[in-house]
Every structure is written in C-alpha cells, then in structure tokens.
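Researcher: We plan to redesign the surface later, but first we want a full-length starting point. Tokens attached.
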C-alpha cells in the first residue's frame, strides 16, 4: 500500500510540474519569411494568403506542398515550430506518413535526415482549428533546414495559419524541476526493485536476471527521442539487410516490440523471484514500474507518456507471469 501511495504522489507532482512549469523561453527573432514555394501537381491546389496556407489534394497519388528554406540558423540550437491547423476529409494514403503534416526537415548537404525528429503534427479526417507546437534540436551536421506543410500522397483539405519558427532556450526553473523529478522516479524504481529482493529472499541468479531486465527497461525509457529513433532505424536496417522475409513479416514498430519483450522477461523473472507471493502482488509491482517509466517520460527529451505504451508494458509483464504461474495440463504436451 505504501508503494501505491508513493506512486500516486509522484504521479501528481510530475503531471503538475509538466503542466505549470514553462519549459522554454523565446531566445531569438522570428525565422520565417514570406518566401514560400508551392508544389501543386495537376488537379490539386495550394495557396498562400497573409501567412495562411491552404492545400487541397484530389489525387492521393500526388503530393501537395508549401515550403520554405530557412536561410540562417545555428547548429546545435533548439527551434520551436508552431501553427494553428485544420483538416477536412483527410484520407490517409498507403504509407504511415501519407497524411496532412507540418514538418521541419534537416538536411546534411546530401540527403534529408528523416531519422531526426521532424514532425510537428499529422492530421487525418476532419479536425477543427487547434494549436500545435514542437521543438527540434538542430544537428551539428545539418547544413539546411526547411519548413514544409504537405498533403503527402493523400486526399483532403489542409489549412494552416499563425505559423511561427524561432529559437528557444530551456528555462532555469524547468532544468531544476526536470532533474528533481527524474531523480525521484529513479529513487522510486530502485526502492521498488529493492523491495522485490527483500520479499524474494536470497536467489542470486534470479536477482541478477531481474536487475538486467530492469536496466534494459530503464535505458529504453530514458533514451532521448532522437537516439531512440536512430537505434530503431539501425535495427530495422539490419533486419531488412538480413532477409526480405523479415521485412515483410515484421511490420510492427520495433520499439513497441522491445517494450513488450523486456517487460515479459521482467514479469517472468519477478514471478519466479516472488513465487511465494500472490499473483496480485507481482502484478502490482510490475504495473508500478510500467506506470513510473511512462510518467517519467514527461521530462525525457522528445518522449511522451502514452497509455498505449503502458498497456503494452502491462501485457508483456502479464505474459511473463502467465508463463510461470499457469500450469500446463498433462494432455497439452501432446498437442
């Protein structure tokens, strides 16, 4: 019960700090100009009116874009791109990125770096006007950047207004809050792991395995978004280079697969370690860890806590518990 109360207190503090502490402050002038360029193939339309962009696509096989190159920027700086956006009857195309999107694309002088964070938001269906904002760290190897509003091989109407791009810096208050919150969640995670050791008794091999699974989960959770994306891309590249069959048969997001597998291992080992405890006790420990790792992502660069990810973690852990706790009936071995 004490662990649950402590978790709830940390969760409330984390959400409150994320909501009320300003992360960035403007540190430079507006970087966008009126020098937009339009790319609208036949039967599609793109217009620019007083810093408002209007894109219409009737052909899902053609892309419509309005974009501009940003002439002056500093490598290593943090830029914030924001806009009000509205969509009408957006029908996605064949690829996951065939949507209505606002992007900041970095180019290293030879190719666009899609492995860098690049999307402010993507819209489908019909949505009323809403404000969207995202920050981007400009890579040290970046030579060019461009801001682009696009209907990428999809159909519908996409409107944008109040588009702003300017450099920002992290506030001192947020820096201290971030360090404090992450430290508190780290202490909570270690406390949770330690309590499992105490309840499980001296089982050195299981304890070592639990620590390894725990470390893998923490590393995956605290990895900044850019690094996580690069690692995922490298793994996917290895899969694709190994076999075209793997490319076709593994359509899932590998980071989600990692979430599931690491928590499955953690759940299995935890269940073995706490074999004398009820399943509910094991599941509570697992859910507290899953919830804590997600909430901590409020303060991890480029990461966002998602209930879907929490569900994947919980499902993986539950599978691990089931593998240990559910007995195999004698007749099942011959199936």
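Model: Full-length starting sequence:
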């Amino acid at each position: 019960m004490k662990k649950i109360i402590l978790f709830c207190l940390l969760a409330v503090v984390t959400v409150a700090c994320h909501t009320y502490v300003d992360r960035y402050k403007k540190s430079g002038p507006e970087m966008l100009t009126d020098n937009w360029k339009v790319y609208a193939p036949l039967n599609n339309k793109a217009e620019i009116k007083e810093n408002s962009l209007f894109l219409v696509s009737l052909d899902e096989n053609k892309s419509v874009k309005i974009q501009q190159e940003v002439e002056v920027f500093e490598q290593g700086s943090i830029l914030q791109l924001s806009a009000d956006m509205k969509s009408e009857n957006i029908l996605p195309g064949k690829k996951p990125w065939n949507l209505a999107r606002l992007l900041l694309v970095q180019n290293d002088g030879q190719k666009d770096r899609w492995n860098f964070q690049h999307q402010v938001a993507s819209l489908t269906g019909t949505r009323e006007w809403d404000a969207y904002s995202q920050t981007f760290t400009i890579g040290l190897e970046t030579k060019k950047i461009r801001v682009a509003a696009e209907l990428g091989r999809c159909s519908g109407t996409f409107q944008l207004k109040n588009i702003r791009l300017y450099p920002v810096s992290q506030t001192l208050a947020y820096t201290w809050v971030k360090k404090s919150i992450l430290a508190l969640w780290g202490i909570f995670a270690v406390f949770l792991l330690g309590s499992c050791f105490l309840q499980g008794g001296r089982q050195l091999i299981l304890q070592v395995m639990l620590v390894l699974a725990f470390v893998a989960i923490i590393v995956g959770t605290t990895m900044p978004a850019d690094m996580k994306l690069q690692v995922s891309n490298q793994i996917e590249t290895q899969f694709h280079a190994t076999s075209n069959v793997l490319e076709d048969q593994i359509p899932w997001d590998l980071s989600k697969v990692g979430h599931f597998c690491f928590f499955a291992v953690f759940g299995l080992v935890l269940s073995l370690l706490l074999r004398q405890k009820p399943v509910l006790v094991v599941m509570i420990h697992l859910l507290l860890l899953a919830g804590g790792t997600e909430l901590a992502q409020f303060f991890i660069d480029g990461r966002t806590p998602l209930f879907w990810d929490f569900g994947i973690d919980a499902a993986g852990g539950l599978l691990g518990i089931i593998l240990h706790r559910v007995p195999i009936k004698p007749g099942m071995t011959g199936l």
